[in-house]
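User: Round two. Same drill as before: sequence, then structure, for each protein.

Assistant: Same drill it is. First protein:
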Amino acid sequence: MQEPLLGAEGLDYDTFPEAPASPEERTRAGALQNKKVFLATFAAVLGNFSFGYALVYTSPVIPVLKNSSTPELHLNEIQASWFGSVFTLGAAAGGLSAMVLNDLLGRKLSIMFSAIPSATGYALMASAYGLWMLLLGRTLTGFAGGLTAACIPVYVSEISPPGVRGALGATPQLMAVFGSLSLYALGLLLPWRWLAVAGEGPVLIMVLLLSFMPNSPRFLLSRGRDEEALQALTWLRPAYADVHWEFEQIQDSVRRQSSQMSWAEARDPRMYRPIIIAVLMRFLQQLTGITPILVYLQTIFDSTSVLLPSQHDAAIVGAVRLLSVLIAAVTMDLAGRKVLLYVSASTMFVANLTLGLYIHFDARPLTHNSTVGLETASLGPTDPPAAHFSYITLVPLLATMLFIMGYAMGWGPITWLLMSEVLPLRARGVASGLCVLASWLTAFVLTYYFLGVVKVFGLQVPFFFFAAICLLSLLFTGCCVPETKGRSLEQIEAFFHTGRRARH
C-alpha cells in the first residue's frame, strides 16, 4: 500500500464537486411516488427485523434461565456469556458465506436462503431441552443475521434511486431496531419459548414477499441478463422515469467491471481505499459497545438499580432507538451522512462517559443480583434499593437512552448504507461479506468478555473504553469518510477512481 488512505492529491476527499442535477436526481419526486421500490425494500428488510429480534433475544431470557429450576437449562455465568455471544460467531460465519453467495446466487436469493437457518434456529430454541439446543439455535439465527446483514444493504442500495437512497438505506437499521423493540415488548407478555416461536412469522412473510420481487438490476447485468435487468429496473421505477438513461449508466459501469477483482488489483488504492473505509467503519461501529449493551441490556439495568423494572427500561430504550432511526431516515438525504455521523459519535461519547462516571462515583451501593452476573468490586455492602431511592437512579436509563439515540441516528444506519455505497461493484459481494465478518468477530470478543471484564474491573470500565472509541470515530469521520448524499453509485465509484464525479 504505497498511497495514503485519503483521496487524490489536490482534491477534497470529503465531498464531491458540485454538479447540475442529473435526470435521475430530477425524478426524485417521482421515485417517492413509486410504491414498488418501497415494496421491494420492505420485503428485503424483513430479514433485518428477524436479525434485530434474534440479536436481543437473550436480554429477557438470560435472567429467566439463570433462575431456571430445570438443571439442563439452568445457566451459570460462563454459559450465559456463551449464550449471549455465540450469536455473533454465527453472524461472522454468515458474513463469510455472503462473500460467496452474494455474487453466486444474487442479492435476493441470498436473502431468501437466510430463512432456512433462521427458521431452524428459532425452532431449536423454542423446543430446547438442553444447553446445546439453545446454543445451536442461537448460532443459526446469528448465521442468518450475518448473511442478511451483508446482502440486504447491497440489494436496497442497488434498487434505489439516488434521491431516496439515503432514506431507503436507513430501513435495514430501522427494521432491525423495530425487531428488537418487538422482542422487548413481547418479552413482557410471553414466556421465553413462545418468544422463539413468534420469531418464525417475519421469516416466512419475508420469503413469501421476496418471491414476487425482482433481483438487483446490477447483479442481473453482471450475469449478462440484460433484458431481465431492464425489466427489473422498469418495474422498480415510475412509468415516466428515464429508465433507459439509468440503464445505460448501470450497463456502462458493469461493462467496465465485468470481471471479479483479482488480488493484484486489490493493491490498487482505487480498490482498497473504499474497502478499508467500509471495514473500519464496521469495526468502529462495534467498538462503540452497541452489541454487548443490547445483549445484556436488562442485565445492566438489573445491576444499576434503576427506578423502573429492568424489563420495562429495556422496552423504553427500544422505543427510543426506533424513534431515532426514523429521524435519521428522514434527515439523511437532507443533512448528509457526515453531519449525522459527527452528531452520533458526539452523543454516544457523552452517554458512555456519563454512565461510566455515574457508576464510578456513585456513593450509593448498587443492588447485587445473583441472577445477573454483573458485579462491581469497588462497591460497598448492598442495601435495599428503596433505602437509597433518588431520581439520580434514572441516570443509567437516561444515559443508555441517549447512547441508543446517538447510535441509531448515525453510526447505526449510516455505516450499513455507506458500506453498500462506497464498495466497488467488482468487489461488492466479497467486500460486504468481509465487512460483516470483521464486524461480528469484533462483536463476539466484546460480548463474550463483557461479563468477565465487569466482574474483574467493574461495570464502569467498559463504558470508559466505549467513550474513547467514540472520540476516535469522530476523528475517523473527519479524515476518511466521504459525503455521498445525492450521488448515484456510478458517481461514487467514479470519484474513487478519478476524484471527480461521473460524466453524464
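Second protein:
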Amino acid sequence: MTASADYGEKIPNNVDLHEDRRLQRALESWQPNFLSWWESMGPTLPTQDVYLRTAVDVGREGWAHFGHVAMRDYRWGIFLSERDPDRRIGFGAHKGEPAWQKVPGEYRADLRRLIVIQGDTEPASVEQQRNLGATAPSLYDLRNLFQVNVEEGRHLWAMVYLLHAHFGREGREEAEELLHRNSGSEESPRILGAFNEETPDWLSFFMFTYFTDRDGKYQLGTLKESGFDPLSRTCEFMLKEEAHHMMVGTTGIDRVVERTVQLMLEHDTDDIAPYGGIPLGVVQKYLNFHYSVSLDLFGGETSSNVANYYTAGLKGRWMEGRRKDDHRLTDDAVMVDALVDGTIGQTEVAALVGLNTDLRREYVADCQSGVNRWNRILADAGLPQRLKLPSVAFNRQVGAFAGIEATPDGEPLTAEEWAAQKGAWLPDDVDKAHVRSLMRPVHERGRIASWIAPPRNGINGRPFDYDYVHLA
C-alpha cells in the first residue's frame, strides 16, 4: 500500500523517501535546479500568491487542498497511487505475471526512453505558456493558467523521481537534461515537435489544453497499463491532474464560441472582428492547427517500436482491461490510415504494428466530443455554422501523410495548391494579429475581456469575482 503523504519533508511524498537517504539527497540536490528553472523559464507575471490546488493525498477521501500559495513555495511533491500487491501484467508476452517493482534489465533502455519523452513534455508546456499571464482575460483564467503550470511542474517531478529511483547515474543525467532542453530552442529543443510551437495567445492556450493535453491523457493512459508498477502508479495519479488541464481547454473554447455567437447575433454578421470578437472561421483555423499538430504526437500509423513495447509489457493500450481479445495480439490484424496508390485510404497490417493508430482513433473520438459540445452552442443559438475536425491527412508532418498535402476534407493537393490555399485553413498573419490585438489583460476582480464569456462556475465553489490571484 501507499504511505500517507508526508508534508513535513523538504520534498512532500508518499513513497517513504526518508527511508532511502541516498535517493533523498539526490532529489534534494535536483530541487534547487528545478526552482532555478522555474524562476527563469516559468511564469513571467509577478504574483504574491495564487488560489491553487495542492495534492495532499492520493486516496479516495480526497487528494486536493485549496488555498492561496506563493508559486515559488508551491509544494511540488512525489505521489504514486496506492499499490495493489496482487497486480499482474495485463498484456503482452508477460501477461499474467506479477507486475515488476524493479526495472527488468532487458527493458531498461526502453523504459528510460519512454519516461524521458513523457517527462520532457511537462516543463515544455510551462515554457510555452510562460508569457500568457500578461494578457489573461480574467483573474479566474489567470488562476487556471497557473494551476496548469504548477501541475505540469509536479508531473516533471513524477518522472524525475522514477529516473532517480530506478535508473542510477543514467537516470540522474537524464533528469538534468530535462531542465536544459527548452521549448523552441535552436540548440536544445524539446523532443516532440508540438512542444516547440509557440503558445502566444489565449485562444492557442485553450486549443493546446484541449487538444495537446488530451494527447497527454492518452499517452499517460497507455503507460498506466505498464508492467513496471511504479510507472503505472505514477501515471494513474497524474491522470487526475491532467483532467483539470483538459477542462480548462474545453470550457475555454466553450466560452470563446459562446461570446462569438453573442456578437454574431447582436450585430447580425459573421464578421465580428470589428466588434472585438474572434470570428468562427478563425476559431476553426486554430482548431485545425492544434488538432493536426497533436495528431503527429502519436507517431506513425505503424510502429515496430510500439509493437515491441506492447509485447514486452511496457506500454499497453487505452483501457486495456476493457478490451475483448487475448491481450497478446500476435495473430490479429487491423486497418490503418495509409496512402494507397497515391490516394488517402487504408491498408491492413498486423495489430501489434498498428497500435499507434489504435490509440490515435481513441483520441480522435474523444476530440469529437468537444466539437459536438461547441456545435450545440451554435445550434442552441439557431445558427447554421458548425465546427469540425479536419481529416487525419490534413497538415501532417509525421506518419503516412507527412509527404503529401490535403484539404481539411481529405482531398489531395499539389504543393502549389497547398501554398495558395493554406491561409484559408490555418491561421495566417492577419488572423494571428487580430487575436493578439484582443489580448489585453483584465486583472480586476469580477471583470473579463470582451472576446470571451465568463465561466458558469468558479473554482472550488468560489464565485467568479473571487480574488483568485494577488498580483505583485
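Residues 17-471 form a domain with the Ribonucleotide Reductase, subunit A fold (CATH 1.10.620.20).

User: Perfect.
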